[in-house]
Amino acid sequence: MSKDSGLSLTDKDKSYFFHPFTALKSHESTGGKIIVEGKGSTLTDSEGNKFLDAMAGLWCVNLGYGNTELADTIHDQVKKLSYYHSFSGMSTDLAAQLSERIINMCPVPMSKVFFGNSGSDANDTHAKIIWFYNNALGRPNKKKIISRLRGYHGVTVLSAGLTGLSNLHDGFDLPLPMIRHVRPPHRLWEKAPGATDAEFAQTLADELETLIINEGPDTVAAFIAEPVQAAGGVIVPPSEYFPAIQKVLKKYDVLLIADEVVTAFGRLGKMFGTSVVGMEPDLMTIAKGLTSAYIPLSGSIVSEKVWQVLRDGSEKYGAFGHGYTYSAHPIAAACAIKTLEIVERDNYVGKAEKQGKVLHQLLQTHFADHPLVGEIRGQGLIGAVELVANREKPEAFDPSLKIAPRVAKRSMELGVITRALPAADTVAFSPPFIVTDSELEVMVKTVRKAVDEIGKEIGRM
């Protein structure tokens, strides 16, 4: 029988909990925050301190903390049907209803949705779908997937390789050999001086085409992209970018995966990010906002073009040999149905668009002329400021200074939880859709204060 150690929560956490994305050795001495309660946009830790959450958890708690409708829905479903699987053609009423709802909501024609537990496994599912698809078409060599540097597509063995961030590769023998990366549409660092957005977009499309040709078009299966690269820096592409990219993909019969894990269900001020940036995907990945993160659920959505090949391929290979114990879990499905109902009924997409305008005005007001800010980026209710050593050139800070992590740490000490993004010195904002104007003002002003204080520490203010 287990026995309580008598340790404090912080010591229990340090002693027994293996944290994700954490510096393991230093955490043993520093510990972390223990969050015990959330309501609206506010979190409370084990010591009674309150924090405004400027990140909606990890870009995901769109409806805010403590939504009673979602809590009641989950409670009721636990009592009615706590679990059933979806293998061998079995289903539940909720899986059928949710699937129909998602397909009808999609911004481009789609056919079927496969359910998983996270964005990571959903992108792994897409890879297996794509490989099965090309095998069924008699194209066994067409298996490579191209992603973008600074893209984020998950942490499982394959999806971590698709992610274009070195901290997900170093020490893990990743990425796998069938993955390639191209440059992202990051104006600050990648765009040639004097180039227009259209010229920049065409340059990136030309580079993609060159890579496909060099690899061999008969070996390249898919290109995966977020409408806006979130964890990579909140990188918003030029309007000309995806039309130019898609022209290349169609030329070489390369499928397009839209990774909408962060952007779907309103984050960019539209129901789907693909509508904002002009993507016409063959496959889509959803998660996070699907349940407002109240319970894990993801979806891998496929077009009719892809579905017909999978369907016919199963005659050759037998049952589609992929799935998860918790695929379309009835509690998660019930939560998702209620989440989407609330989003549509209460116009949360419109609220995200409205509050996004407030956020971006505040970012411009407090950071546009700041000597340490190289660029302000965002779309809808997601934004970021990138901190630089020289905004005229521009020139990045020495990574060893860890400027953005220090800003995020100081912001938390001041009562606002934001996030330092891993690719550069970028501080992100992605609050719940229910955030108020006054809360947004506190968030932005607090981060500005933190930037000023860190700037003084390094002798730059």
Task: Please name the defining characteristics of this protein.
single chain; 461 residues; alpha/beta; Aspartate Aminotransferase, domain 1; Aspartate Aminotransferase, domain 2; 2 domains; seven-stranded mixed sheet; four-stranded mixed sheet; 16 helices; 15 strands; 41% helix
What would you say about this model in short?
With 461 residues, the protein is α/β, with parallel strands linked by helices. 41% of the residues lie in helices and 15% in strands. It is globular, with a radius of gyration of 22 Å.
Give a written overview of the molecule.
- With 461 residues, this protein is of the alpha/beta class.
- The protein folds into 2 domains: 145 residues, Alpha-Beta Complex (Aspartate Aminotransferase, domain 1); 276 residues, Aspartate Aminotransferase, domain 2 (3-Layer(aba) Sandwich).
- Helix content is 41%, strand content 15%.
- It contains 16 helices and 15 strands.
- The strands form 3 sheets. Strands 4-10-9-8-7-5-6 form a 7-stranded mixed sheet, with helices on both faces.
- α6 packs across α12 and α15 packs across α16.
- It is globular, with a radius of gyration of 22 Å.
- The protein starts with 8 loop residues before the first helix and ends with a helix.
